[in-house]
Amino acid sequence: MPEFPRFSSSVAAMPGAVYSAVTARLAQYSGEVYPLNVGDTWMEPVEGCRMEDLTVRENPGLHRYTPPAGLPELRRAIAQQVEDSTSLATDPSEVLIGAGATAALSTVVGALVDPGDEVLIMAPYWPLIAGMVTVFRGVPVAVPFFSPTDAPTSAEEAVEAFARRRTDRTVAIYLNTPHNPSGRVLPPEWAQALVAWAEERGLWILSDEVYEPFTYKTVHIPLRPLAPEQIVTIHSFSKTYGMTGNRCGYLVGPRELIAQCNKIGTHTYYCAPRAGQISAFKALQSPAAQSWVSEAREKYAQVGTKAAQILGVPEPEGSTFFFLDVADRLDERGLTGFLEDCADEGILLAPGPSFGPFPTCVRVCFTCAEPAVVLRGFEKLARLVGR
How far is the CA of 263 from the CAs of 110, 267, 269, 316, in angstroms? Predict the structure, then answer.
């Protein structure tokens, strides 16, 4: 019998803070702060879709549970939107509302992964996906993809990167486009080749498309129509409408899988917050909210272009990030020393190891604060990286 106190060995081995290990050092700094480590937006949601716009009078039961799978009217609206945008018939039973896209994605992992099963994850990756696989006793397998030093240059190389790491325990692959943290967008021919490869081998495809509205000089191609029986897509009101604190995201996939995911959601968070779901529904119905998305995309593109020019790197294709290799700026202290030097200038960055085996890299967000503030932070960062 294990001795008390005992914790799960797999969970105990997981990191706690995944985005920055030097935030405490910032307490010694008294100037302007540049939170470039946070993947958020400075823009408030459009008027009419904010928490302050909700009242019990207009929304009876505002503080009560919803059905675990989500408000029926929201699921219907999402199904209709997905059908309109993909030309693929979509039923509300193929939609699950989660407490943020994070919780929604975790239900997929829980529904698919048995202990020891492997999920191939394009890397660098959004940090929480690896933790989710670990929590459900699976094995996350990093597949070098949009990394600064090791990236495919063709659809064939993209497929080969996954094929080399597939084993008999592989049950799914995780794709993310527009990509966090690299700012890349998966080319259509690459997406088609990867889906065809996974489909032929009977693998599930988890397609994280939470930044789908935010591409700049290229186009995002929804993946679900390529193999609707094997693909589940993950979407976010947090990113699309600037509602990160509302905790409302959703899945779209085969109804049999969605039913299994609903079991996980029911036994963990039970349901997404009703207020967040109501705000999401309002956003889908509001022409002003759709204009907000267009305005956000334009503003993000402008600040992303300026930030790229300051750093001397290619402009982002999508999402709101850069992933930088700062190996030539590291001394004997390694990446921690560089992050400490940045914190001493008021700059917080997300460390590369949170995104996979990238000990000399950092992720930088260009929408985390007002553009003027962000660009001042990028000017400081450019000096620190010698660019």
Answer: 9, 6, 11, 38
Q: Which of 316, 321, 326 is nearest to 385 (CA)?
A: 326
For each of the domains in the chain, give its residue range(s) and CATH number, in order of start.
Answer: 9-44+289-384 (3.90.1150.10), 58-286 (3.40.640.10)
Eight-state DSSP code of residue 23 = G
* Cβ pair 345, 380 in contact under 8 A: yes
Q: Which residues does 307 contact at the CB level (< 8 Å), separation at least 6?
A: 322, 364, 366, 374, 375, 378
Q: Which of 95, 133, 66, 126 is nearest to 261 (CA)?
A: 95
Q: pLDDT tens digit string along 248-301? A: 999 999 999 999 999 999 999 999 999 999 999 999 999 999 999 999 999 999
Q: Which of 255, 236, 257 is nearest to 247 (CA)?
A: 236
Q: Residue 179 pLDDT more than 70?
A: yes
Q: In what order do the strands lie in the sheet with 139-144?
A: 95-98, 249-252, 231-236, 204-208, 170-176, 118-123, 139-144
Neighbouring residues of 352: CB distance < 8 A, sequence distance ≥ 6: 124, 323, 335, 358, 359, 360, 361, 362, 363
Does residue 234 register a pLDDT over 90? yes
In angstroms, the Cα distances linking 260 to 87, 144, 181, 218, 263 are: 25, 30, 29, 35, 5
Tokens in use for 213? 């509205």
Q: Quick count: other Cβ atoms within 10 Å of Cβ 1?
A: 4
Locate 149 and state its tokens.
């030093």
* DSSP secondary structure code for residue 3 in this structure: P
pLDDT tens digits for range 131-178: 999 999 999 999 999 988 878 899 999 999 999 999 999 999 999 999
Element (H, E) at 96: strand 95-98
